[in-house]
From TrEMBL:
<dbReference type="Pfam" id="PF11588">
    <property type="entry name" value="DUF3243"/>
</dbReference>
<dbReference type="InterPro" id="IPR021637">
    <property type="entry name" value="DUF3243"/>
</dbReference>
<protein>
    <submittedName>
        <fullName>DUF3243 domain-containing protein</fullName>
    </submittedName>
</protein>
<dbReference type="InterPro" id="IPR038292">
    <property type="entry name" value="YmfJ/YflH_sf"/>
</dbReference>
<dbReference type="InterPro" id="IPR024702">
    <property type="entry name" value="Uncharacterised_YmfJ"/>
</dbReference>
Length: 86
């Protein structure tokens, strides 16, 4: 089963990657830009595996570029306290 199949596992996965990046000194601006790029990739290249992903894809698709950056930043905040180390 892929981490994309279950939204809670997906958030844990993202939380772990976020914490790794922060521990390695990656600036928040870089993390937020990577989150934007991941959001863009998922919205255009990956089929939603659950209702949460479908909703995020639909929001992404109707959002302006500025709003997409906001969505990406909110996803970073959402997973801040997620992950296997939390």
């Amino acid at each position: 089963m892929s981490v994309l199949d279950n939204f809670e596992q997906w958030k844990d996965f993202l939380g772990d990657r976020l914490h790794q990046a922060q521990e390695n000194g990656v600036p928040d601006s870089t993390i937020n830009e990577l989150a934007y790029e991941v959001g863009e990739h998922l919205a255009t290249q990956v089929d939603a595996k659950n209702d949460e992903e479908a909703m995020l894809r639909d929001l992404w698709n109707v959002a302006s570029e500025e709003e997409r950056h906001v969505i990406a930043n909110m996803m970073v905040k959402l997973v801040q306290n997620e992950g296997t180390g939390q």
